[in-house]
Design a protein that fits this description.
Layout: E1 2-8, E2 11-17, E3 22-27, E4 30-36, E5 42-47, E6 50-59, E7 65-72, E8 75-83, H1 86-114
Antiparallel strand pairs: 1-2, 2-3, 3-4, 5-6, 6-7, 7-8
């Protein structure tokens, strides 16, 4: 899911995040960085021979926000704070419930076989 877009001159930098924590950064619709993170990470971007860093920080349990900072030469060029997608939380709740049920059934099976 696309969360943010930064425009530097005629160039477009997009930040995407999947339900499983895969962060992707696109520069002019081309993938330039893809990393897995649950709490945030730094993505290095080279634009017109200049080094940029797109830093993400995910507040999962507090505000459920993603803070994004575009940094050039150690200085913040632009900062965006976006709300995390509510669907992601619902998916993780369903996965947790499914894993809980599976663990319960597995433990019951093990206990029955021990007796």
């Amino acid at each position: 899911m696309k969360y943010a877009e930064f425009n530097i001159g005629n160039n477009k930098i997009e930040f995407l995040n999947s339900v499983f924590g895969t962060e992707s950064v696109l520069l002019n619709d081309k993938l330039v960085s893809k990393k897995i993170s649950l709490s945030g990470i730094k993505h290095k971007i080279i634009l017109n021979s200049e080094n940029f860093i797109l830093k993400s920080k995910y507040e999962q349990f507090d505000k459920r926000e993603i803070e994004l900072k575009l940094i050039k030469n150690g200085e913040t060029v632009e900062k965006q704070i976006v709300k995390a997608d509510k669907k992601h939380r619902i998916y993780w709740m369903l996965i947790g419930i499914g894993l809980g049920i599976a663990a319960y059934k597995l433990l019951n099976l093990v206990i029955e076989n021990l007796n």
